[in-house]
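REQUEST ID: PR-0412
SUBMITTED BY: lab tech R.K.
PRIORITY: routine
TASK: structure prediction, single protein chain
INPUT:
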Amino acid sequence: MKSNTMRIERKRVTDQIIDQLIAMIAEGRFKPGDKLPSETALMELFGVGRSSLREAVGALSLIGMLTVRPGHGTHVAPSAGDSLSKPLRWGMFMSWREKLHEFIEARISLEQTLVGMAAERATEADIEEIRRGLNLLKVPRLTRRRAIQADLVFHMAIANASHNSVLTRFLEELRQPVKNWMEQKASLFGGYDSVYEQHETVFKAILARDPARAQKAIREHLEAVGERLTAALLERRPG
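STATUS: complete
OUTPUT:
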C-alpha cells in the first residue's frame, strides 16, 4: 500500500540566515545604509557558525542586498528597499547555491545575444561609446570604484549598440546583481588587467563586424569570471 506521507525537506542553515536577514530588512529593523552588527554578534543572534553566516552574507552581497567593505563592515545596500519591492530581483536568488549558476548562465546567454547584434548593428557613435568604456579601464591609478564604473559602461554600451530596447532593458533589470558581481570580482581577484584584455578582444570582434567571434569572446570572458567567483563564494560553505 502506497504511503501518503509527504517528505518535508529541511532548509539549509545558510538559507535560514538569508530568510532572517531579508525579513529584518523588510521589517525595518535594518534600514538601507545601516551597518549590520559584527560577525560575532550575528553568529550569537542566529546561533550559527561563521562559515554559514559568511555564505549567507556573500549571497546577499552578490544580489545587491548587502555591501561588504573590508575594514568598514557590512551595510544594508542603499538599493535594498527597491529590491524588496520587486521580488523578482531577489526572490530568484533565494536558493542561491543553485541559482548562482543559473544567474551566470542567464547573463552569458543575454550578453551573447546583445554582443552579436552589436557587431552587426553598431553605429560609429556606438563604437565610440564602447571604446570609451574600454579605455576607462586604462586610466592611470584606477580605483576599484572607477574600474567597476568602467566595466558597467562597457557592457551597457554594447547592450545599447544592439538597438534592441527590450533586451537592453533586461540587462538594466539585472544591473544591481551585475554590479555586485563586479564588486565581488574586484574584491576577490584584485586588479582589472585581465578584464581589460578580455574586453579588448570583445571590442575588436565588434569592430571587425564579426558576431560569432564577439559572442565567443564575451562567453569566454563571463565564463572565466563566473567560475572563479562561484568557486570563491562556495569556499565558505560548511563541510
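NOTES: The first strand starts at residue 66 and ends at 69.
REVIEWED BY: pending
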